[in-house]
Amino acid sequence: MSTPVITVEHGAVGYDGRPVLRDVSLSVTAGEVVAVLGANGSGKSTLIRAVLGLVPLSTGTITLFGQPQRRFRQWQRIGYVPQRLGAGGGVPATVREVVASGRLARRGLLRPPGTADRAAVDDALRAVGLADRAADPVATLSGGQQQRTLIARALAGRPELLILDEPTAGVDAASQEAFAGALRDFVGDGGTVLLVAHELGPLRPVISRAVVVHEGGICHDGPVPDPAGHHAEPDHDHVHPHGPDEPAGLWSS
Ligand SMILES: Nc1ncnc2c1ncn2[C@@H]1O[C@H](COP(=O)(O)OP(=O)(O)OP(=O)(O)O)[C@@H](O)[C@H]1O
C-alpha cells in the first residue's frame, strides 16, 4: 500500500489552554478527496491548520508524505487555499499576477518566470475557467471568481496535495461547478485533496470520503452522509434544536 499523504495520530489542539480538538486520528491516502464537515466552531479549520503546521499540536503526531511534520521541508508539495476573508476589495493585481504568485515558491524570487512557470499559470487559469479574465484586476471579479483565482494560484504551484478551507462558501453556482471540474482534473492527474465544507453541492460526486468533526473529535469517517431529510433544502434555516442522536449541524449550524 502507498504511504499515506497525511497521517494525524491522537492529535490534540487547544487555544489559550482551551481544548478544541481532542484525540483526533486521521489518515488520507493518495488520490482521495476528503471533506471535513461539521458545525460552526467544531474545529474543522483548526484540524487543517494543524496539518499545515500553522497551529501546534499539544499532543499527538502528524506525518506528511511519510515524514514527521516537524522535519518536513517540501511545503511546495502542498497547495493551501485559506478561508475567504470576504470581498477582497482594493487588490490592484490582475488575475494572472495573483495566479503567477503561486509559482514563487517553485522558482525562487530572483529568477524570472520561465516557460514552465507560464505554462503552469495558463493551465491553472484554464482549470478554473478564468483564462478569459487573466488580464482583469481581481477587484473587478465576483466573489466566486476571486475564490477561483485563489484556487488557481494554489494549482499553479503544481502541488500534490491541495488543502482548502471552505472553498465554495458563498460562491455562485457557476464557480462551484468550475471548481468541481478543476478538482476532478486535479485528482485525475494524481492529486490528493483535503477540504473543509459546509455544503457540498456540486462537489458531492467528487468527494470520496467525509470526516465529520463534532465536539472536538471525529464522529464519522466514511461515505458522505446524507443530509437528513428537510435539512437538505436550501431554505432550511436551522432555527429548531437538533435531535439528541443527530450530529448537530452536520451541514451547517
Ligand atoms: N486563533 C484562535 N485563537 C483562539 N480561539 C480560536 C482561534 N481559532 C479558532 N478558535 C476557536 O476554536 C474553535 C474552533 O474553531 P475553528 O475555526 O477550527 O472551527 P470551524 O469548525 O472551522 O468553524 P467555522 O465552520 O465557523 O469556520 C472555535 O470556538 C473558535 O472560536
From TrEMBL:
Xref: Pfam families: ABC_tran
Domain of life: Bacteria
PROSITE patterns linked to this entry: ABC_TRANSPORTER_2
Residue ranges with Basic and acidic residues bias: 228-245
Keyword field: ATP-binding, Nucleotide-binding, Transport
Record-linked SUPFAM superfamilies: P-loop containing nucleoside triphosphate hydrolases (SSF52540)
ABC transporter domain mapped to chain residues: 6-240
InterPro entries, sorted: AAA+_ATPase, ABC_transporter-like_ATP-bd, Metal_Ion_Import_ABC, P-loop_NTPase
Protein name in the entry: Metal ABC transporter ATP-binding protein
One GO molecular-function entry: ATP hydrolysis activity
Region span, Disordered: 221-253
Naturally occurring in which organism (per UniProt): Micromonospora orduensis
